[in-house]
């Protein structure tokens, strides 16, 4: 098959016929010589606001391919062979107990899915509720403030990503085509097909929920089992090998193989693992605020006069502050909502969320500052305690609601008293407060300096009426659970996995890590 890169089409003339004609021209053949073609990648090139283009990479099957490739010296025309995920060969050791997967976020679900496909019939335990119940519980929390500590935005079927934008882009190299397999699986279970080729694919929280339920039902159909409202509360070992687990502080289950896909907010589980001598270490992460602008403003700044013809625009911003702190935008949600994502009684954390259509009035993004063990301590659980400190302050100054502040008042270190031209798009109660009171001075200084700089990249980004809210504290796990080349922890039989274990940073990388861990188990054991 031939792959052609750098096919440019005006957004005003984006038609299959035009793309096909450009393919033929690039290959110096007639349109009739093209047998089939399909989009491999599609992106928007908005560098020239007066001539915004769609950029395509396409896979083409045509007559006399070898002859065409020999004649053509264009580096954007190349041969590609099969690009398919290859299932691992099964090992020979026998399993004495079922494989248990802790957590049903992307890492846990895709580990369980691959195991189920290969006939291992995994048991998935999830501390939160099933999707159907969880949605009702979270909506009730946003409307009435009743927090379920075990089932919320962080915990429950689908993991924290369920209440997000459902972004599926990743910078991770993928020579084994795990990413392709994951995207195809999402489509198989109800995601839109455009995620297979868009440069910045996203599902949207509303569609993702349905996909997860379909994926769960497929695992069950293949012999897997799901137990909701079932929390891992302890582990037991013999000679440094896992032998049993405790569930909900009461039930003991024989278990020799445990996939730990616990997510970045399972602080009680981190503490249990540490107490049982599972080796882990503190790792860097980032904390900060969410900012809101009108989506129409972001569209116009990115696309100019063509804004109405294109999907809601995104942005990505980075800055190195004078105090040597990295500041960057994170988890940008076009047409989204800032949501109360708390999971503890005495703390408040926020996140961003968009539906498939990204049709709310505002764009929001986290603006976060890097922190390291030099800031909070080198004990494995010190980063977790640092997060807790910020979240407690956020809840205190917001009196239980999301604390927010206009940018002009954040700069002046004073509480806002009324909104300007921008009104918040939020899920959960909110109130005016002074966000300066949440953070150490080095974070406030870095944020203020960065926001002013971002105003030179996106005009009026640093407008006085921009809304800031806090605290964005769970950008990634504060710990990394040590694992070896076989993906096992320092206690044999435990397989740390995904974002919570410190090996991923989003839906795609977590799902890919879930596949890697499942592959390691399959390569060693037969079923």
Summary keywords:
single chain; alpha/beta; Alpha-Beta Plaits; seven-stranded mixed beta sheet; five-stranded parallel beta sheet; 29% helix; globular
- Could you tell me the number of beta strands? 26
Give the helix tally.
Answer: 13
- The overall number of domains is 3
Q: How many angstroms separate the termini?
A: 37 Å
Q: State the low-pLDDT regions, or none.
A: none
Q: Which architecture name of the largest domain does CATH use?
A: 3-Layer(bba) Sandwich
Q: Based on CA inertia axes, which overall geometry fits?
A: globular
Percent of residues in helices comes to: 25-40%
Radius of gyration: 24 Å
Any idea what the CATH superfamily of the largest domain is called?
A: FAD/NAD(P)-binding domain
Q: Structural class, judged by helices and strands? A: alpha/beta
CATH topology label of the largest domain = FAD/NAD(P)-binding domain
Relative strand content: 25-35%
CATH classification class of the largest domain: Alpha Beta
Strand arrangement within the widest β-sheet reads 15-16-19-14-23-20-22
In round numbers, the mean pLDDT is: 96
**Largest β-sheet summary:** 7 strands, mixed
């Amino acid at each position: 098959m031939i792959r052609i890169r750098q096919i440019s089409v005006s957004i005003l003339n984006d038609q299959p016929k035009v793309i096909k004609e450009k393919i033929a021209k690039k290959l110096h053949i007639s349109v009739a010589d093209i047998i089939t073609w399909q989009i491999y990648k599609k992106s928007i090139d908005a560098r020239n606001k007066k001539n915004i283009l769609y950029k395509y990479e396409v896979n083409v099957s045509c007559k006399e391919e070898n002859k065409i490739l020999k004649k053509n010296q264009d580096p954007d025309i190349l041969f590609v062979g099969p690009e398919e995920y290859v299932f691992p060969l099964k090992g020979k050791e026998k399993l004495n107990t079922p494989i248990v997967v802790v957590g049903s976020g992307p890492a846990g679900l895709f580990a369980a899915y691959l195991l189920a496909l290969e006939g291992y019939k995994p048991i998935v335990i999830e501390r939160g509720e099933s999707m159907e119940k969880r949605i009702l519980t979270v909506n009730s929390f946003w409307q009435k403030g009743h927090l379920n500590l075990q089932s919320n935005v962080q915990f429950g079927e689908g993991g924290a990503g369920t209440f997000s934008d459902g972004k599926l882009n990743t910078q991770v190299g993928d020579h084994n085509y795990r990413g392709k397999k994951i995207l195809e699986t999402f489509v198989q279970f109800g995601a839109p097909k455009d995620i297979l080729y868009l440069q910045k694919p996203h599902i949207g929280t509303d569609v993702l929920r349905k996909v997860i339920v379909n994926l769960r039902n497929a695992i069950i159909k293949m012999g897997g089992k799901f137990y909701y409202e079932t929390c891992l509360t302890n582990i037991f070992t013999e000679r440094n090998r896992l032998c049993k687990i405790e569930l909900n502080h009461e039930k003991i289950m024989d278990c020799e193989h445990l996939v730990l896909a616990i997510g970045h907010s399972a602080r009680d589980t981190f503490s249990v693992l540490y107490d049982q001598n599972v080796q882990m270490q503190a790792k860097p992460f980032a904390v900060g605020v969410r900012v809101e602008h009108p989506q129409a403003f972001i569209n116009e700044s990115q696309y100019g006069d063509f804004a109405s013809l294109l999907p809601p625009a995104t942005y990505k911003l980075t800055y190195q502050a004078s105090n040597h702190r990295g500041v960057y935008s994170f988890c940008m949600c076009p047409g989204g909502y800032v949501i109360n994502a708390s999971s503890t009684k005495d703390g408040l954390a926020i996140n961003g969320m968009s539906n498939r259509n990204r049709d709310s009035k505002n764009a929001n993004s986290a603006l976060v500052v890097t922190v390291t063990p030099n800031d909070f301590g080198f004990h494995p659980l010190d980063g977790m305690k640092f997060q807790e400190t910020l979240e407690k302050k956020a809840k205190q100054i917001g009196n239980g609601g999301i604390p927010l502040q206009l940018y002009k008042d954040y700069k002046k270190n004073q509480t806002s008293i009324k909104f300007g031209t921008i009104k918040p798009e939020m899920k959960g109660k909110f109130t005016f407060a002074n966000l300066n009171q949440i953070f150490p001075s080095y974070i406030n200084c870095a944020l203020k300096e960065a926001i002013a700089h971002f105003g030179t990249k996106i005009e009026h980004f640093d407008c006085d009426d921009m809304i800031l809210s806090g605290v964005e504290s769970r950008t990634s796990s504060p710990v990394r659970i040590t694992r070896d080349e076989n993906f096992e922890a320092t206690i044999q039989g435990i397989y740390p996995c995904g974002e919570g274990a410190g090996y991923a940073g989003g839906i795609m990388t977590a799902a890919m890590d879930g596949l890697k861990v499942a592959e390691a188990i399959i390569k060693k054991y037969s079923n």
